[in-house]
Amino acid sequence: MLVRTLAAEGFEARTAPDGGAALAAIEESAPDVLVLDVAMPGLDGLDVARRVRSKGLTFPILLLTARDAVAERVAGLDAGADDYLVKPFAPEELLARIRALLRRGREPTDVLAFGDLVLDVSSRSARRGTRELTLSGRETALLELLLRNSRQVVSRELALERVWGSVGAASPNVVDRYVYYLRRKLGEPPLIEAVRGTGFILGR
Questions:
Q1: Of 50, 86, 103, 159, which has the highest C-beta tally within 10 A?
Q2: What is the number of other CB atoms lying within 10 angstroms of the CB of residue 17?
Q3: Virtual CA dihedral for 12, 101, 27, 145, nearest 10 degrees?
Q4: DSSP bridge pairs for 195
């Protein structure tokens, strides 16, 4: 029912039968927003939310539950959820909550950081520790993409689309070349890893 409701509004929805399957799906491709039922077999929604947040993933999480007690809502928010919807609910309210979470999740952040690596998006300046980094425009754009998706795999196709304008704008090999440039400039210990056959990830 939820998939049909979301598809009718133009969303692409993926489902998972339990918490473990949900985590596996997130490892393959992080969603724009995660909708979790609290009462799932195996790992419940609270456990999944906690594990997602422990990995440093920041996409919005909406919890669905039949429990309306204040303590239950507090537990959900403490687990890392951004919003909480009690069953039964109208489909229109679910869609409104998701749209609000997506708007919130897409608000730009001026300063991005991972460990001792810091990128000021507005000034396009970067540093690692106390060392200033001299980056080209493409290198800066690629680093911003990796930082905004830290601990998530960034495919070559996504990098070509976001940094070079379209998938067909340049050879996929150009992404590997610019990742090599970034690795040299970022220094040790290395932050960017290759994921065979897929793309690259900043941090683990």
A1: 159
A2: 10
A3: 100
A4: 199
**How does pLDDT run across 37-71, given as a tens digit for each residue?**
998 888 889 999 999 888 878 889 999 988 777 77
Strands, E, within 46-178: which ranges? 61-65, 83-86, 111-114, 117-120, 125-128, 131-133, 154-155
Question: Is cis: bond before 88, omega within 30 of 0?
Answer: yes
Written as six digits, the tokens of 13 are 């929805």
- Strand boundaries in 18-66, DSSP class E: 34-37, 61-65
Residue 79 identity (one-letter amino acid): A
Q: Is 26 left (phi over 0), alpha (psi -120 to 50) or beta?
A: alpha
Sign for the CA dihedral angle at 16, 149, 197, 193 comes to: negative
pLDDT in tens, 152-184: 889 988 888 888 876 555 677 899 999 999 999
Q: Which one-letter amino acid corresponds to residue 92?
A: E
